[in-house]
Amino acid sequence: MKTYIFVRNKIYRPSTYYRLYQYIAKNNTNSNFKVVEFENNRYYKIKEKTIFLRIFNVVFNSLLPGYTKRLLILLQITLIKFFCDKYQYKIYVQRECFPKFIGPIGSILLNRVLSKANEIYWDFDDNIFESKEISTYEKMLLLKYTNKITVGNQYLVGKINELYKNKIVVLNTTDITMSNLNLKEINQNRSRTYESEINLIWVGTKGNLRFIEQVIPFIDEAAEIIDKKVVLKIVSDGIINKSTKKLVIKNIRWERSLAYKEMLASHIGLMPLEDNEFTRGKCAFKAVQAIGCGLPVILSNVGMNYTVVEKGNGILANSKIEWIEGLNILSNNFELWKEKSILSRQLWEEKFNPNEIKSIILEMVDN
Question: What are the residues facing 297 on neighbouring strands?
Fold first, then answer.
C-alpha cells in the first residue's frame, strides 16, 4: 500500500524531523513511501538580510512550490484512484497539508483524497489551532476522516472535540540521537570544567529567541554572584546581541550534530517560556533533549514542562528570584548537580525513550 506523507520540511522543521522523519529516514528509499515537502531546503539556508529577501524566500521557496506540489500530488492520487478503483493508499499528515490557506481547488482535492483513502493519520505537537496554522476546513476534514490522531501532550487532547477523542493517542516528542549515551563518561568530562566554568545551553529556532532573551537579565544577575565563569550558549538559526555585565553569551549557528555536541559539553539546560494559550500546548522538547543528555534543567512552569522535572531532576522557575536561586544552587553544589544529572537521564529513559514511539510510527506508515 502506498503511503503519502505530507510534511513542511523533513530535515529543518523540528516537529517533522523529531515527530516522524528520524524514525523513517533509513526506510526513505522504500518505494511505498512518498514524502511530500511544502518547503524546500533553500528556504532554510537563505540568510534573510532584508525584508525583500524574506518575502522573496517565502514566496518562491515555500508558498508557490509548496502549494503547487500539494495540488499536483492530490490531483495525481485522485486520477489514479479514478482509473483504478482498487488502488490502495494511506495518508499521513504532519501538522497540516495546506499551511494557513487551502483555497477552493485544494479543498475539493483534499476532500476527495481523504474520503477515498484506506487509512489516514494526523499528527501535531503544537496548538496549531491557536496559531491559525491550519484552516478550519482542513481541520474539519481531518477530524472527520482520520483513523488516528497523534498529539504531543494532554493539553492538545483538550483541543479536540469530544466526538473525536477516541481517535487520539499521545506520543511524546523525543530525540533518537540520545539512545546510546554513556552518561558516566560524559559527566567525567563535565566535572573537569564545573569548578571554573558553568555552561548553560538553550537550543531553539529564531522565532523563540524572545523567550531566552527575557531571562538573560536574571541569568546575568546570577552570574555576578556565582564565583565562576558563566557562559550561555544559544544554539539557533538566529542570534542575540545583548550587553551583559558578567554573563558570556555565545551564539552558535544551529546544526543538528553540533547542537548535540554542545549539549554534551554543557552543565544546565534552559527552557524559559511565556505563559499563553500557544505555549501551553508546547511539548517541552528542548527540555527533553537536555534531560536526554543528562542535564539538570531550569524551566518555566508552563505547559508540559512540569513533567520533565518530575523526578526532582530540575527546577521550575517563573520569577526573577527563582531563576537566580536555581542557577546559583546548580552551579555551586557539584554533588547535587550530579544527582540531578543522573535523575534527568533516568526520567528520559523511562518516559522519552524512542523505541516504543518508533514502533508506533512505523506501524502507521510502513505496513
Answer: 269, 314
What residues have CB less than 8 Å from 364, skipping those under 6 apart? 90, 92, 119, 121, 148, 150
Q: By three-state DSSP, how is residue 36 classified?
A: strand
202: closest CA among 249, 247, 243, 244?
A: 249
> Could you tell me how many helices (H) and strands (E) the chain has, helices first?
15, 12
Q: Which residues contact 127 (CB under 8 A, 6 or more apart)?
A: 155, 156, 159, 277, 278, 280, 281
Give the span between the Cα atoms of 303 and 153, in whole angstroms: 9
Count CB neighbours of 265 within 10 A: 14
> 119 with 84: CB under 8 angstroms?
no
Q: Lay out the sheet containing 248-253: strands in order across.
A: 248-253, 229-236, 197-203, 268-271, 297-299, 314-316
The region, left, alpha or beta by phi > 0 then psi within -120 to 50, assigned to residue 133 is alpha
| Residue type, position 100, single letter | K
**Helices 183-194/334-351 angle, 10° precision:** 150
Instruction: Say if strands 89-94 and 148-151 run parallel, antiparallel, or are unpaired.
Output: unpaired
0.90 exceeded by pTM? yes
Cβ-based neighbours of 1, under 8 Å, separated by 6 or more = 32, 88, 89, 90, 118, 119, 367
Residues 6 or more apart in contact with residue 155 via CB below 8 angstroms: 127, 280, 281, 303, 304
Going residue by residue through the chain, which has 367 residues, state the pLDDT in tens, using 9 for 90 and above: 999 999 999 999 999 999 999 999 887 666 788 999 999 999 988 877 788 888 999 999 999 999 999 999 999 999 999 999 999 999 999 999 999 999 999 999 999 999 999 999 999 999 999 999 999 999 999 999 999 999 999 999 999 999 999 999 999 999 999 999 999 999 999 999 999 999 999 999 999 999 999 999 999 999 999 999 999 999 999 999 999 999 999 999 999 999 999 999 999 999 999 999 999 999 999 999 999 999 999 999 999 999 999 999 999 999 999 999 999 999 999 999 999 999 999 999 999 999 989 999 999 998 6
